[in-house]
Design brief:
elongated; TetR family transcriptional regulator; 2 domains; mainly alpha; HTH_TetR; Homeodomain-like_sf; Tet_transcr_reg_TetR-rel_C_sf; transcription; Tetracycline Repressor, domain 2; Arc Repressor Mutant, subunit A
Length: 190
Amino acid sequence: MASTDKVSPRDRLLDAAARLSYRDGVCVGIEALCREAGVSKRSMYQLFDSKDAMLAASLERRIPGYDAQLTHPDPQAATPRERILHVFQRLERASLDADYRGCPYLAVLVELKNPGHPATVVARAVKERLAETFRAEAARGGARDPGLLARQLLLVFDGASARAGAKVENLGDGLATATVTALMDAAGMD
C-alpha cells in the first residue's frame, strides 16, 4: 500500500468513505472519516461540498471495480445464461469473505431512504444498470418475459446479498445459483 503522503487527501477521503460506510453504514461521522483518512475537516470541506457529496463520489469511484467483478471473464464466448450465472457465482464467493457486508449499493438504498440524496442517486443507477444487464441477457437467451426475469434476478441478487451480508444465510452451498437456474429454466431461457 502506498504511504499516505503519496496519496492525495481527496483519494484518502474517498478510500476512508468506502471502507467505513461499508463496514459501519453511511451514517458514519465526519470526524471518523477525516481521522481514518488523516485529513482535517477543513480540508474535507474544501474538497467536497458535503459528506453526502463525498459519499456519492466514493460510490461512483467503486463502480468500475464492482462492474468488473460481475462481468464474465470471457463475455464474448459465454452464453447469456453463463453470464448471468457468473454474477451469482461471484456473489456466492464474495459472501464467504469474513468482511462481506452485502452489496454496498443496496446498503445505501436501504439506509438512506431519501431518493434525492446524492449517494442514493448513484446507488439507484448502479442497481438499474444491473437490472438492465439482466434484462438484456434474458432477452438474448430467449426468455419469454425478459423484464420479469430481470426483476426476479435482481430480487434474488439483492435478497441473497442482504442475507449473506447480515450473516443469516450461507451462500457457499450454491443456493443463489440454484435459484437463478430454476428461474431461467422456468422463463424458457436457453
